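Minutes, project check-in
Item: structure for the 192-residue chain
Input as provided by the requester:
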Amino acid sequence: MRILRASDYRRMPWKNGGGETVEIAVYPANAGLDDFAWRISMAKVASDGPFSSFPGIDRTLSILEGAGMTLVIGDQAPVTLTHDTPPYPFAADIPTSAMLVDGPITDLNVMTRRNRSTHRVTRHVVNGTQILTTSEKTVTFILVQDAVEIVVGDGETHQLQPLDAMICDPSAADFTLKTDKSTTVYEIVLTA
């Protein structure tokens, strides 16, 4: 298990040059945009516009802060994402554009290369205590929006601050999330 602190995340320009991404984690380590198996990042979106195209990539977006944005993905009906909507999966190689609902947003972006990995993102609202279980066949990644205490199956305790993350390498274990107020936690399950 590894704890990732928000202050240590890597900042880099968007692929299309239209903004900045905060890279939380990538696999393999130090992989670039053309060779990652999976990548987890955040981005501040301050204006309407097109998304970068990522051939062969599946992505899931979640709204962390702000009123939300409406996505137009290919010829599909527009879909509006807010902090309260479930994480939204779509193919990153279909032309996509975004329109902000009311001002800038910050999103959580999970991407996996189709021929190498898959992912699932679940948004949990934790108020008190919640138990999550990891698997021997997946990497589980947790991102918290507010301070959370995490207790691993063997009793080891970690304090996560807002936007910190935890990576649990493949192993079957339970961990408990504890918080004294309602907070949003994103569980990302990655498979190879």
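Outcome recorded: The chain has two domains: 9-114, 119-191.
No further action items on this chain.
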